[in-house]
Write a structure and sequence with these properties.
By secondary structure, the protein is an alpha+beta fold. It has three domains: 3-111, Orthogonal Bundle (Butyryl-Coa Dehydrogenase, subunit A, domain 1); 147-288, Butyryl-CoA Dehydrogenase, subunit A, domain 2; 297-433, no CATH class. The chain has helices at residues 3-15, 18-25, 30-44, 61-82, 100-107, 114-127, 130-141, 300-323, 334-359, 364-371, 392-401, 404-433; strands at 147-150, 166-170, 181-185, 193-194, 205-213, 219-228, 241-245, 258-262, 265-268, 277-279, 285-287.
Length: 434
């Protein structure tokens, strides 16, 4: 046995309560740990063997993608079989169950469908009106509609202001659908959507970020449009849509990051996300009265993902900067480096459960309820960690009374507290072990 590992195990039995730390990382109780282990066992002991990862490194990328889709199908089957998704807060949607993140971690592999619930569904919930949500969300819940978020373009990346894809209003009298249509078009090669995950092979719909040209020919800036990519019956590409996989990448091999170009693809007028702005059947554009902060929500989906990516790096830097200076007089030994690694790992474990909630648009309603005294505060992990509360009425009240910067401040405070907990944990166990 490795000498360092042997020494840690011998001293740990006397001075380190492993089970206590495990309960903390699992949510603070022995019951949470028991439930986590039960869910992991459901994956590990599945008789189909589809969750086996032993040959992942020997599979071609296409085979990895197909295998990952099989894992997704089997995972949903198991969830429905044991009632995951039937909880009141899940409302019949498996991915909104408090148990779903644990199952995803237990897979120890990525799923090409992940951006469906991480970006596509949250986009519908935040930017579509109640009538649109009532139509679209059941399709998403039953996996008949599988979506991706198509913002980045080949020539512009995430430079939202420079995006070129257009959505031009087409009235019924000029050949549009009943009630009017939008024509989604990629005018140049640089306007090709490039890199969105789930786009290459998996998705049959995309939430396309495009420049809205209203009935008067006025460019109204970027808006969100639901564009069908493939048939919901046989998954064949639809007319006017050119899309595919961008090919191998250094990491994330199962994700089919893709490209897409649109050649005058006609979609119904109501396929525009109309919660904060709308276009009527005559092409008249109307922007609903909201605060300046809320007006930026059109691209909140990508912002929350970018924030998450930045914080992965920031956590490591922050924890080391917090831990090392106070201990500058302590001899930096191999043992200290091991403790630093533990603190960093703990930071990831503590914060990953909260980042989507804190930085996602979806925490707003919960903050509103807590501030208004309608709900007592409790661990956000046991709420939906990705979507939070999705009640349209609560969301509407929050949007009217709160500002985006408010929950940004809450997020910063919570992040600092999480890191502080890790520092205290480090000092506590080091003192007990000395």
């Amino acid at each position: 046995m490795n000498a360092d590992l042997k020494r840690e195990r011998e001293t740990g039995r006397r001075n380190f309560d492993v089970e206590r730390l495990t309960h903390m990382l699992d949510g603070g109780s022995a019951e949470a740990t028991r439930r986590r282990r039960q869910l992991q066992a459901m994956i590990e002991r599945d008789p189909t063997g589809v969750f086996d990862n032993s040959d992942n490194m020997y599979l071609h990328r296409t085979e990895r993608h197909v295998r990952a889709l099989a894992k997704h199908v089997r995972l949903i089957e198991l969830c429905r079989k044991v009632g995951i998704g039937s909880e009141p807060e899940a409302n019949g949607d498996v991915v909104q169950s408090p148990d779903f993140p644990t199952l995803i971690h237990a897979l120890a592999d990525d799923l090409p469908t992940a951006l469906h619930w991480v970006m596509f569904v949250p986009n519908i919930q935040s930017l579509c009106d109640e009538e649109q949500q009532s139509l679209l969300l059941p399709l998403c819940r039953d996996w008949r509609m599988i979506g991706c978020y198509a913002q980045t373009e080949l020539g512009h990346g995430s430079n939202v202001r420079a995006l070129e894809t257009t959505a031009t209003f087409l009235p019924e009298r000029k050949g549009g659908m009943k009630g009017g249509s939008f024509v989604i078009h990629s005018p140049t090669i640089t306007s090709a959507k490039f890199w969105p995950g789930t786009l290459g092979r998996t998705a049959n719909h995309a939430m396309v970020i495009a420049r809205l040209i209203d009935g008067d020919g006025v460019d109204r800036g970027i808006h969100n449009f639901l564009v069908p990519l493939r048939s919901m019956k046989d998954h064949t590409l639809l007319p006017g849509v050119t899309t595919g996989d961008i090919g191998p990448k250094i990491g994330y091999p199962v994700m089919d990051n893709g490209f897409a170009m649109f050649d005058k693809v006609v979609i119904p007028r109501r396929n525009m996300a109309m919660r904060f702005a709308s276009v009527d059947s005559n092409g008249k554009y109307e922007k609903k009265a909201v605060s300046d902060a809320v007006s930026k929500i059109a691209y909140i989906t990508m912002m929350q993902v970018r924030i998450l990516e930045c914080f992965y790096k920031a956590i490591v830097v922050r924890v080391r900067n917090e831990l090392v200076p106070p201990l500058a007089k302590v001899l930096v030994t191999r043992e200290l480096d091991q403790w630093l690694s533990l603190a960093i790992h703990s930071s990831f474990s503590l914060m990953i459960d909260h980042l989507f909630s804190f930085f996602g648009f979806f925490l707003g309603p919960r903050l509103y309820l807590q501030r208004s005294g309608k709900e007592s505060g409790h661990c956000l992990y046991h709420c939906n960690p990705i979507l939070g509360d999705s009640t349209p009425r609560i969301r509407r009240q929050w949007l009217q009374q709160e500002r985006i910067t408010d929950f940004g401040l809450q997020a910063t405070t919570a992040s600092a507290l999480s890191i502080t907990r890790c520092i205290l944990l480090f000092l506590l166990y080091r003192q007990e072990g000395s």
